Amino acid sequence: MTNTASPEDFLRAFHAQRPAVTAEAFGGGRAPDGRSSYELLCDRVAGSRRVLDLGCGDGLLLELLARDDGPRLAGVDLSPQSLAAARRRPLPAGTRLVAVRAQELPFADGEFDACVSHLALMLMGEVEQVAAEIARVLVPGGTLACVVGGGPVGGEAFERFGRLLKRAVDEAPASSRIPPLGDRRTRSRAGLEEILRPVGFGPVHWQTVPIDLGGPVARVWDAVSGFYELGPLDTATVARLREDFFADVADLTTPEGTVPCGFTVHLAAARLR
Ligand SMILES: C[S@@+](CC[C@H](N)C(=O)[O-])C[C@H]1O[C@@H](n2cnc3c(N)ncnc32)[C@H](O)[C@@H]1O
C-alpha cells in the first residue's frame, strides 16, 4: 500500500487491507489476571445499558460487551471493511454500526450511558471535537472508558521489534512513512484531563497494565507486524524486517520455543458531571 496525505485516508486504506488487524494482534494478549485489554475495558462499563464504541474496528469489544446481559450497542469507525467484519459477529439485534468520523457522531444528545474506545481514541485528530461529541451523546453521569497504548515492558521482543522497525522506517524513503496519527495528549493522564475537563468530565482514573503477547516467535511476529508503520513499507523491506526480527530474538527463545513479548496499555476512565 502507498502512503496517502491525510491521517484518516491512511487509516481507511490500511484497514481496507487489514480490517481485523488490531483484534488479531491484541485480542490474545493477557494482563496479569489472565484477561485481555478488551475484557478489562468491558469491566469499566459493566452494567451500562447503552454503550457506544468509538473506533470499534471489527467489533471484538462489542461482541464482549454483548455478553453483559443485553446492553444496546452501537459502534462507529472510519473503515467500512472493518465494520463489515463487525457485522459478521454475533451482536444483539439492533446494534448500530456506522461508518462515520467520531468527530461527527450521528446520535442524539444523551443517547448513551457509556462510551468505550480500545486503541482508537489515541489515533483521532481534532480530539477536542471528539471529546465534545462524546460529552454530547452521553447522559450526565455517563462514563467514558478507553484503552490507549503505552510502550514496551522492556527487555523483550516488543522492544527489540521497535528498534528494528525504527531503523527500517528511517532507511525507507519519506513516502514510506505514515502520517502523524492522533494527539499525544491522549496517552497521558494529565493530557487526557486537559482534553476532557473543558467538555464537562471529572478527574480521569488512570491505570497502567502490562499485556503479555509472548508465544511462538511466528505468532509474536504476526502481532507486532500489525503496526501501522509497516503498511507503507515495500514487501522486500517487510521481509527483511521479519528476518532480522527472528534473528534478533533468537537468544530470547525459551527451550519451549516461545519468546517473551509485552507492552503496556493505559486504562483511562472519567465520568461526565
Ligand atoms: C487500532 S484500530 C482499533 C480497532 C478496535 N477498537 C480494536 O481495538 O480492535 C483503530 C480504529 O479506529 C478507527 N478510527 C481512527 N480514527 C477514527 C475517527 N476519527 N473516527 C472513527 N474511527 C476512527 C480506525 O478506522 C480503526 O478501525
From TrEMBL:
The UniProt record lists the keyword Metal-binding: no
Keyword flag Translocase: no
Name of a matching Pfam family: Methyltransf_11
Entry keyword set: Methyltransferase, Transferase
One term of GO molecular function: S-adenosylmethionine-dependent methyltransferase activity
Domain Methyltransferase type: 52-146
InterPro entries: Methyltransf_11, SAM-dependent_MTases_sf
Single GO BP term: methylation
SUPFAM superfamilies attached to this UniProt entry: S-adenosyl-L-methionine-dependent methyltransferases
Highest taxon of source: Bacteria
Protein name: Class I SAM-dependent methyltransferase
UniProt organism field: Streptomyces misionensis
